[in-house]
Amino acid sequence: MSTEFRIETTNGRARAGRLITPHGEIETPVFMPVGTAATVKSVPQDVLEELGVQILLGNTYHLYLRPGVETVRNLGGLHGFMAWPRAILTDSGGFQVFSLNELRKVTDDGVTFRSHLDGSSHFFSPESAMEAQIGLGADISMAFDECTEYPADRARTKASMELTLRWAERSKKYFEEHKYEVPWQEAGEGARSTPSLFGIVQGGMHLPLRKESAERTIAIGFPGYAIGGLSVGEPRERTREVVEATLQYLPSDKPRYLMGVGTPEEIVEYASLGIDMMDCVLPTRAARHGLLFTSEGKVSIKQARYTNDSGPLDPNCGCRVCRRYSRAYLRHLYASNEVLAQVLNTLHNLSFYLDTMRRVRHSIRLGEESRFLSGLWSQPKP
Question: Which domain holds residue 329?
Answer without folding.
Answer: 288-375
